[in-house]
Amino acid sequence: MINIKEIKKQLEQANSLCELEALRINLLGRQGVLNSYLKDLKNLPLDERKKRGEELNLIKEELECIISKKIEAINRSLLLERLKKDSIDPYLPPFPINIGRMHILNRVINKIIHVLERLGYEAVEGPEVETEYYNFEALNMPLHHPARDMWDTFYLNNGKLLRTHTSPIQIRAMEANKLPIKIIASGRCFRRDNPDASHSPIFHQIEALYIDKGVSFAHLKGTLEYFARSMFGREQKVKFILSYFPFVEPGAEVAVKCVICKGRGCITCKQTGWLEILGAGMVHPEVLERQNIDYKIYSGFAFGMGAERIAMLMYGINHIRHFLDNDLRFLNQFKYNLED
């Protein structure tokens, strides 16, 4: 039978982890002493086999406990020796700490919202999974309307869809019927766009809606001029180009002087000197009427933009994928600025 006293003595005399590991393998390894006794149990009578097996299991547990404590004691001793040899100078400067910073896209979104909040707009949010009613029908796009093809939509198995724009948030605000309405709707949107330098299946959109008595296109023009100059500089020029959106009438695309060539013409602006930044228009009477808002008394405007596009123009970023890659070489270019 195993001489437990002799084994304990050997373990106590072990002075290094290597020596201790060799003893552990000799005692508890697959070819070790204890396993050889366990293999011999099959040759014993049943009653004696059970008794001997319990004894060997108790010995195994005891040896594992002794070895574990011995390893801890050796590690502690090694640490104390190392601390005695190493000197610590409390006056040395600490190692540099890498401090995180807000993602450039979030900073641009916050700046856009902050600019509009100065005009009295309130930021609101809504669900990313929407119904066809909020995403299309309430926005003057009934079933089979050809304008739906302008939004390549992700449909879900439950009959719902991933919102293609943040306009459904505007509809929910109109449903509350608490006039006047002056909100900013922002969040992620989803479209089945083929990825390229300026398109991604996931992007961020920011829209604004203002409904009150006597709101005119002149109010929209003044708002967007203030917005463009706040984002791109005080001397920035704004141009309105007639366009079609089913939920506004009239509708327009809004462009600013090219921030790359300052209006002289370049590859970025396709030699036009102008860059389109957002879509806008007066809220369509059909949209107001669906939400029980009397369009003969109330009028309003709405405009919306892709946050990634604004950020790309502000910082000269040439590909939308940089916002999603989490590449520190890209992110570290944008140092924190109090003005942001």
UniProtKB/TrEMBL annotation:
Its cofactor is Mg(2+). Its main location: cytoplasm. GO terms for cellular component: cytoplasm. Gene3D superfamilies: Bira Bifunctional Protein, Domain 2 (3.30.930.10). GO terms for biological process: phenylalanyl-tRNA aminoacylation. InterPro entries: aa-tRNA-synth_II (IPR006195), aa-tRNA-synth_II/BPL/LPL (IPR045864), Phe-tRNA-synth_IIc_asu (IPR004529), Phe-tRNA_ligase_II_N (IPR004188), Phe_tRNA_ligase_alpha1_bac (IPR022911), Phenylalanyl-tRNA_Synthase (IPR002319), tRNA-bd_arm (IPR010978). It is found in: Cytoplasm. Residues 102-333 form the Aminoacyl-transfer RNA synthetases class-II family profile domain. Keywords: Aminoacyl-tRNA synthetase, ATP-binding, Cytoplasm, Ligase, Magnesium, Metal-binding, Nucleotide-binding, Protein biosynthesis. CDD domains: PheRS_alpha_core. Mg(2+) binds at residue 249. Its EC number is 6.1.1.20. It comes from the Bacteria. GO terms for molecular function: ATP binding; magnesium ion binding; phenylalanine-tRNA ligase activity; tRNA binding. Binds 2 magnesium ions per tetramer. It catalyses: tRNA(Phe) + L-phenylalanine + ATP = L-phenylalanyl-tRNA(Phe) + AMP + diphosphate + H(+). Belongs to the class-II aminoacyl-tRNA synthetase family. Phe-tRNA synthetase alpha subunit type 1 subfamily. Tetramer of two alpha and two beta subunits. This is Phenylalanine--tRNA ligase alpha subunit. It comes from Psychracetigena formicireducens. The gene is pheS.
